[in-house]
Specification:
By secondary structure, this protein is of the alpha+beta class. It has helices at 7-15, 19-41, 45-61, 71-88, 110-116, 120-128, 132-143, 149-156, 160-180, 190-208, 212-219, 237-250, and strands at 220-228, 233-235, 253-262, 265-273, 285-293, 296-303.
Length: 310
């Protein structure tokens, strides 16, 4: 890649899988992106967040940019929408693209878009290189329903300030990797992602059939810990088994909706289905944050994300 490419050329290269080209684009437009954030939010961490979130959004969404010549306005519009969402308070989604850049009806979820994008393998490799705490907050922020700082803090058992610091560090690492070089080949992650989906469907299906004890025995460490942030509850495998048994006895069922995995962090998001005679029995969904050791669960945090604000 030469140094004289215009924006449209760089976009086409990035859409073809050249992560270094996207790095050049981000470096070229970062000052303008930051100016937009500062004009709306002033100096402070919120402005940095708006810019850094836009960089991560570009990693995920560059493949869907329909007009390569509009990449500058596209990046600034993402920053502008991030800033406006920040001003409105906790966000239901980590990034909001303006209507005129949005995809058609049926647009894939962020994780689906990334899995289909040319930059997929580089991004997942880069996320996998983050430390476990940075990787965890990155996955929650950008690929789960527990995306607000407050919810991430609750899931991780950390102060909001710590969450902000970890996210900032992670985004700098990702953006820095793009700016430096991203030309090395990385393993195809599609097969690994599909394996995690298949594994999750099998395990949750077994649990719904009353076989959760077998799932725990085969896939958890004997000293594994379960944490429920709401109420500050925690316990071992017996605690987890009692909780699942009660749900099944009450008629609650779960359906796997999303799987996100990176090395030793595995996230399941499920739809919770209340019994027909008690439709308000349980929250609409659950997030299973599983921290692994040698492929087995050493800690599970069960969290119920707040429903999206309307």
């Amino acid at each position: 890649m030469g140094v004289a490419e215009d924006d449209a050329d760089l976009v086409l290269l990035a859409q073809a899988g050249d992560a270094a080209a996207l790095g050049v684009l981000l470096a070229r437009h970062e000052a303008e992106m930051r100016a937009v954030a500062l004009s709306l939010l002033g100096y402070g961490p919120e402005a940095d967040d708006a810019v850094q979130d836009a960089m991560v959004a570009a990693l995920r969404r560059i493949g869907g940019l329909r007009d390569p010549t509009a990449v500058g306005p596209w990046l600034k519009a993402i920053v502008r929408n991030n800033a406006r969402m920040s001003l409105r308070g906790p966000r239901a989604l980590p990034v909001a693209d303006p209507e005129w850049f949005a995809g058609p009806a049926g647009t894939p979820t962020p994780e689906e878009a990334l899995d289909r994008g040319a930059l997929r393998d580089w991004v997942w490799h880069a996320i996998g290189e983050l430390s476990e705490p940075d990787r965890l907050v990155t996955l929650l922020r950008h690929f789960s329903d527990a995306s607000s700082y407050e919810q991430i803090a609750a899931v991780c058992g950390a102060p909001v300030g710590t969450v902000r610091s970890r996210l900032s560090h992670a985004r700098r690492a990702l953006a820095g990797g793009l700016r430096a070089t991203a030309t090395a080949a990385h393993a195809d992650t599609a097969a690994a992602a599909e394996a995690r989906w298949s594994e999750g469907r099998d395990m949750l299906g077994a649990a719904m059939r009353g076989e959760f004890e077998r799932v725990v025995r085969e896939n958890w460490w004997p000293d594994a810990e379960m944490i429920v942030p709401a109420g500050g509850l925690r316990g071992g495998t017996d605690f987890a088994l009692r909780g699942m048994e009660k749900d099944l006895t009450d008629g609650v069922r779960q359906r796997l909706r999303n799987v996100v995995a990176s090395r030793d962090v595995l996230i399941w998001e499920t739809d919770l289905i209340s019994p027909p005679d008690d439709p308000g029995h349980c929250p609409p969904g659950a997030l299973w944050l599983q921290v692994l050791r040698e492929g087995r669960v050493r800690q599970l945090t069960l969290f119920h994300p707040a429903p999206p604000r309307t």
